[in-house]
Amino acid sequence: MIQRTAWAIALLAVLATAQTYPPDAVDKLAADSLPNLKEYLAKNPQNGCTYETAVKRREWSNLSVQERKDYTDAVLCLMSKPALTSAQAPGAKSRFDDYMVVHIQQTPRNHGSTFFLPWHRYYVWHYENALRTECGYKGYQPYWNWDRYAKDPSNSPLFDGGEGSMGGNGAKVAHQGIPIPGAPSPYNMIPPADGGGCVTTALSRINLGPIAPTLRITRNPRSDGLGHNPRCLRRDVNKNAAAVTTANYTHSLITSNSDVYWFQTVMEGQFPQGKWGVHAGGHYTVSGDPAGDFYVSPGDPVFWLHHAMIDRVWWIWQMQDLEKRLAQVSMTRTMNNFPPSANGTLDDLSGLGVLAGDVKVRELMSTMGGLGGKFCYIYD
Ligand SMILES: *[C@@H]1O[C@H](CO)[C@@H](O)[C@H](O)[C@H]1NC(C)=O
Ligand SMILES: *[C@@H]1O[C@H](CO)[C@@H](O)[C@H](O)[C@H]1NC(C)=O
Ligand SMILES: *[C@@H]1O[C@H](CO)[C@@H](O)[C@H](O)[C@H]1NC(C)=O
């Protein structure tokens, strides 16, 4: 639970609200791209979703402190509802955990593959919908514009530990740094930062995993990570990692990669070349357990804001050439083509396991009109 005791922290939150961020290069690109979207929509009706009816997902610090609390209260509500997946995952204790179960089970399919972008779009939308329909949340999924907090993430509205935050950094605990397999020095290590221990202002306790732990975590009783392993949320909020998520990197990701293969490759990281990319960069900015665990990362509630930003960046990229990019997927059906598989297509199926059935990838390509019109959102 969020501790509501420290006045100093509350004051910090108030100060953070007062903080304003001028539009960065990516914000400007998004705004400049909206006429393309409107023009496209005028010619191509989208299952009843129009520019006027599309809802807007907003940036975390653009929400008032009350709106942020409404969001975190809804997350806590999801954590208080009984799991649907406990038959297959005895460690799953809540509806929130259900989402971790699905991610754990499908990690290899949905990373470094055709499904990475469309599947995560579906996944985030489904979670947003659960917050709204099961927990009375009236807003929409907020996103984390990495650039705003990259210089000093631990003192940002996201991680300062105040009432309007997603909980604070972890307590400072000495550790060796976090190894990044497959990357050359110095990119083979996230250096230790000011946290590493338990988050005392945490939104959650963790029940599942670890599978690919980055800190010394008690092993899960089951090899698939789905047994019960209750523990605190740990973070090591890290500006070293945040440095690769600035608007500079994100803008060039969007504008320098016209083919979706390269857009996705640069976004997901080119580890042998020491390039983490914005996707891993965001995960490593939070770091710790389970945010740094490739399989279990949705158990840190900030995952959902990070992946909303991933989705936003794809949306901005798509707006640069809607005709083509709403229909473009690449890569194969398996992670890094291991084991070797065919190239994926728009007719491949993608689903959320026990949470939601399979749909064709083509249903997940447009934030406006996808999933038979259930997707109807843009980013503010
Ligand atoms: C979000 O906040 C920034 C200042 O932090 C402001 O420049 C921008 O206009 C806001 N956007 C919206 C849509 O309110
Ligand atoms: C901007 O991003 C590019 C890669 O896209 C990188 O090579 C360059 O060092 C970055 N510049 C700054 C100032 O971070
Ligand atoms: C699979 O996609 C790659 C590009 O991503 C392309 O070079 C290759 O020809 C495709 N293979 C087949 C069999 O279509």
From TrEMBL:
Pfam families: Tyrosinase (PF00264). InterPro entries: Di-copper_centre_dom_sf (IPR008922), Tyrosinase/Hemocyanin (IPR050316), Tyrosinase_Cu-bd (IPR002227). Transmembrane segments: none annotated. It comes from the Eukaryota. GO terms for molecular function: metal ion binding; oxidoreductase activity. Residues 1-20 form the signal peptide. Residues 111-128, 300-311 form the Tyrosinase copper-binding domain. This is Tyrosinase copper-binding domain-containing protein. The lineage of its organism: Eukaryota, Fungi, Dikarya, Ascomycota, Pezizomycotina.
